[in-house]
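User: I'm putting together a small comparison set for a docking exercise, and I want a reference complex before I start. The sequence is below, and the ligand is calcium ion. Could you produce the 3D structure with the ligand included, as structure tokens?
Assistant: Of course. I'll restate your input first, then give the structure tokens for the complex.
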Amino acid sequence: MKVIIDTDPGIDDAMALLFAHYANDIELLGITTVFGNGTIDTVTQNTLTICEQFQINAPVHQGAGAPLQVAVDPPPAFVHGNDGLGDIDAPKPKGAARNQSAANFIVETILKHPNEITVIGIGRLTNLAIALQQHPAIAQLVKKVVIMGGALGSNAHTGNVTPVAEANIYGDPHAADQVLTAPWPVTLVGLDVTMQCIMHRPQLQKICSAAGAAGRFMWAISRHFESFYSASRGINGFPMHDTCAIAYALAPHLFTTQSGAIRAVTQGISRGQTIMVSPDRKFPAGAWTDAPIQQGCIDIDAAAVLNLFQRVLTRP
Ligand code: RIB
Ligand code: CA
């Protein structure tokens, strides 16, 4: 599977990148960065550091530093640390991002490999929206788009930055709405399933002690993330948000999906909410009428996803 990952490392992004890197079935053609868990400079540096430390040879392309229309929020240091990687004083990268922008790289790569590219977005959707604006025809030429973002209300999960909004969608709601309503095949891997997929400490300890340098790195960066989730949610572990999107691309049978048009609310107290309308429900013509039918994950075999992650990271 030829893959581009659009990301904002970010502790769970870093784990997702390592998962994708070590998964045999993924050919990582490039990594694009977007503001979110840190400033665009921070997340790009973090991506380069991860690539250098773990010999990930994919090119890194820097993307958007701010949302399309709303103001940029300060990075959530209380979740990911001031440096986006749990304040472990990770080495600074020696190399730099390529000169070509993230959006240009996404467009060029999809055009070069028609119907072969899976784009996995695990941050704000700004780069994907800009790529669509630059070259709308990519919507017909991409194989699929998998997004960690949003919440459809399954398993009683509705939001993590407001009662109704998930961070990646809230952070650039206009981009999210453009991406969700474009005529390309999107699967939303939202809080509905990622909050069901908790990496508890005993399994993490097992993985990290068997995964060499990657294990030591994952253990170190995840201390901050684990403390945040244990203090705020009383969980003895943390949700594997971004890893779930990679897992969906690798093993979609581990997820239950539902079809429907999905839109993101762009303003007001519901900003960032993702709302899906089933094609079976009939409403008077309105905002969802012409939106394409997409897929949303509503359930997950969490134990199988965590075991897949474990197998990939600990393979000899
Ligand atoms: O809401 C979870 C998402 O927000 C993840 O992508 C995480 O990395 C943060 O960006
Ligand atoms: Ca992320």
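The radius of gyration is 18 Å. DSSP finds 13 helices and eleven strands in the chain.
User: Thanks, that's exactly what I needed.
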